[in-house]
Specification:
With 226 residues, the protein is an alpha+beta fold. The chain is built from 6 helices and 8 strands; from the N terminus they run ββαααβββαβαββα.
């Protein structure tokens, strides 16, 4: 199946100043951009700072134990982007990495993909994740011509589930024992947004000032193909 006419290398989204492939402005203070090799130290430090907080809902955190592990993730995420299979971006606030938003598991035949996200605990309650997700959803549906975006959250992760609900996603169902998390299985809530629904929803999205975010699963380090 042929990929979208617009790939992730489109000049409109090339990050000229950073020498990276992809950049998307969220607001005056926030930008989404592709992870660079040079980000490995900063990203690992951020992960280490939030390790206890992240581990509650992210099963990959235990596999990320060194800068080299983070470097491997960045290498593989860049390969994923070159192959037009997904894009992992840093949430940058005034130039500082404070989290991540990703589009992954691209299915070009069915024109759908998954959305994942996480943010530094220090930057919760600011609406950053909601605005960042809104920006990249617009990109995926309007530019990549995806027809569907899916978000999966552990059913008990109510703070993270607030993101798709705030964005107007439809709760399509529950997937039982869908993920092994630390020492037990968790059920996942499955949310979906269709392109034609987003056209009716996008202007109604109002990030709450009191937003608090935990995590849904960020793209798994171990599942990115070498």
């Amino acid at each position: 199946m042929e990929n979208s006419a617009l790939t992730l290398y489109d000049d409109r989204y090339f990050c000229q100043n950073q020498n990276c492939m992809f950049s998307l402005r969220v607001d005056n203070d926030t930008e989404l951009r592709q992870f660079l090799i040079a980000d490995a130290g900063e990203l690992f430090t951020l992960t280490e700072k939030n390790r206890t907080y992240l581990r509650k809902w992210l099963h990959w955190i235990d596999a990320n134990q060194s800068v080299n592990d983070t470097l491997n993730f960045i290498f593989q995420s860049q390969k994923q982007a070159r192959n037009n299979q997904g894009i992992e971006t840093a949430i940058c606030r005034d130039g500082k990495i404070v989290g991540a938003v990703g589009l992954n598991s691209f299915n070009w035949q069915s024109k759908k993909c998954n959305l994942t996200y996480w943010i530094d605990q220090e930057y919760q309650s600011k609406g950053i994740v909601t605005r960042s997700c809104k920006a990249i959803i617009c990109f995926a549906l309007q530019e990549l011509k995806m027809n569907k975006i899916e978000i999966r959250c552990a059913t008990g992760n109510y703070k993270s589930r607030g993101i798709p609900e705030r964005l107007g996603f439809l709760l399509e169902g529950m997937s039982r024992q869908s993920e092994w998390l630390n020492d037990h299985y968790v059920d996942q809530a499955v949310y979906g947004m269709l392109a034609h629904e987003w056209k009716l929803t996008v202007n109604k999205v109002q990030p709450e000032k009191t937003e608090v975010v935990d995590e849904v699963e960020v793209v798994e380090f171990e599942k990115l193909e070498a």
